[in-house]
Structures are given as C-alpha cells and as structure tokens.
Amino acid sequence: MKQLWTEKYRPSTLDTYVFKNDAQKRQAEGWVADGIIPHLLFSGEPGTGKTTLAKILIKSLNVNNFDVLSINGSADNGVDILREKITTFVSTMPFGEFKIVLFDEADYITHSAQAILRNLMETYASSARFILTCNYPNKIIPALHSRCQGFHIENVDKTEFTARIAQILIDEDVTFDIDTVDSYVKATYPDMRKCINNCQMNSSNGELVLPTDDTTEITNYKFKAVELFKQGKIKEARVVLCNVNTQEIGGVYRWMYNNLELFGTTDEQKDKAILAIRDGLVNHSLVADPEINLSATLIDVCTIND
C-alpha cells in the first residue's frame, strides 16, 4: 500500500521540527533534558504541527506506549468520555515515570467537560501530564489556561512552506511547474498537512495537476477562486466564494487573510483588504445571516483591485 506523504515526511525529532524561534526550541529541549513536561496547551491553525510536536516530545521522553492515551475532542467531547476513559487511565499506576494524555482539538469539548479535565489535572499531577491542542485558544476555559503552559505554533513562512512542498514533490519524483505549486500553496496555506495530502491525491500519474471539477474535497472552491484571481476574473472569484456553505464561512475569512496578495500587491491594497475582512468577521458574529456579511465583505475586498 502506498504510504501517506503526511506520515512519511512528518518530523520525528526536535532537530527536524520547525520552531517559531530558538527560544521555543530551547524550551522543548529543556523539557527533554529534565525528563518531564508540564501540562501543555499547544495552539495554532490546523496543519501547523501541534500534534506532531506533542508526539515528538512523547517519543523523546521515552514514554512507554502503554502510558499514552490519545483522545480527539472533535469525536469524544462529552463528560462521559472524561469520566470513563480518562479517569480510568490516569488513576492507575504508570509503567514508567508518568502517563500522558494527548487531547487533540480540546477546543471542541464542552465547558463542563473542561471543568472535569481541570480537576483531573490537579488530582493526578504527580503521575500524569496532559497535552492539549487547539485551533481556538479562546474556547479553552481560563482554569485550563492557568494550569497549562501555553505554546503557540506559528504559521510557517509562506516561502518556506512552498519550498517544503516542492522538495517533497522532488523526492517523490513528481514533475510540476511552479505556478501549479503556487496554486496549491495559496489554496491551503498555512495547513501543511492539507497541502501535502492534496498534492499526493493529484499526482498519482507522476505529474502534479490541479484538482478536477468533480473533486469533492472541501477546499476545492479555494483552488477555483485562486485560478480566477490569477486570471484577473475578480467578479467570478467572488461568486465562487459567496457560494460556499455557510458552515465554512469562518474558514473563508481566514483563508482570505492568509492570502492578501490575491487582493492587491501594494501595502495600501492589502491594508484595505485587512480592514474589510476584519469588519466582515465582526458582522459575521453579530448578524443572523452570515451569507449577507460574506457577500458584502467580498464586494469590499474584491473591488480593491477590480
């Protein structure tokens, strides 16, 4: 079976992991040198390496596999999961020095469940550590913030992001042109995992091609919009974005902010786009019909270089 590129090229050591700065790298190295970690809260956008860093730390600390419990908050987010699964796990003696609960997407769990998690952190602090990951740290209750050491995972620089994707394609003997790679980067940045997966999906014949119209991938609308923006078809790109499912609108705003160069090359044009996107986000949270707000925001943003 063909190996997933996301797993094949996932960093496995602190030396191969890309940190925001040297201070963060020294901090992680210090935990490994001490042989222990505090309760941790990793935050950052999807696909930026939160879970990868957690797994590197677990491996570097030589934690016994039987002492690691992995939970995904988007699937297991109720009070019963914490009471039954996690409490049972942390209440027993570890095989090694301590146990680790890796709680991915902790921002999906209810406030009641987070309150229970807070109590578990306190009760079993001598024998268990919790590593929480989240996309939206504002959804984590203050009590958990105060018990965890925060660690924000920054977006990889877009140039470095592009270089990483190109190197993977070269290593996989996939032919490509830089404009196609640029489209993949603009459609998925800063989600490295999403970009790698899309590239693997659309290079099965040894050549990287753009997704076809019958692709059901949720980010396909971004590829269509990127190509239209590149061709100068601003109004057509606007129509594509305005037809996005309302559940994805938050992602559309984030995507627009991460790709300001689509709306203009000058600082003035980008500044105007930022202001329009900001106003759209504010209105999105206040008005019942988000489609109206998105449409209005797109008119404001897209007409900057219309």
Explained architecture:
The chain has 306 residues and is an alpha/beta fold. The protein has three domains: 5-152, 3-Layer(aba) Sandwich (Rossmann fold); 157-217, Helicase, Ruva Protein, domain 3 (Orthogonal Bundle); 223-306. Helix content is 51%, strand content 8%. The relative contact order is 0.09.
Brief write-up:
This protein is an alpha/beta fold and 306 residues long. Helices cover 51% and strands 8% of the residues.
CATH topology (level 3) name of the largest domain: Rossmann fold
Secondary-structure class: alpha/beta
User: Biggest sheet, in brief?
Assistant: 5 strands, parallel
Mean pLDDT level: 86
Estimate the global geometry from the Cα principal axes. globular
Order of helices and strands: HHEHEHEHEHEHHHHHHHH
The number of distinct structural domains comes to 3
CATH architectural label of the largest domain: 3-Layer(aba) Sandwich
Radius of gyration: 21 Å
| Total of DSSP H or I helical runs spanning 4+ residues | 14
CATH class of the largest domain: Alpha Beta
Q: What is the rounded distance between the termini?
A: 47 Å
Oligomer status = single chain
Number of strands: 5
Beta-strand fraction estimate: 5-15%
**CATH homologous superfamily title of the largest domain:** P-loop containing nucleotide triphosphate hydrolases
* Spatial sequence of strands, sheet with the most strands: 2-3-4-1-5
Q: Return residue spans where pLDDT drops below 50 for at least 5 consecutive residues.
A: none
- Report the helical percentage: 40-55%
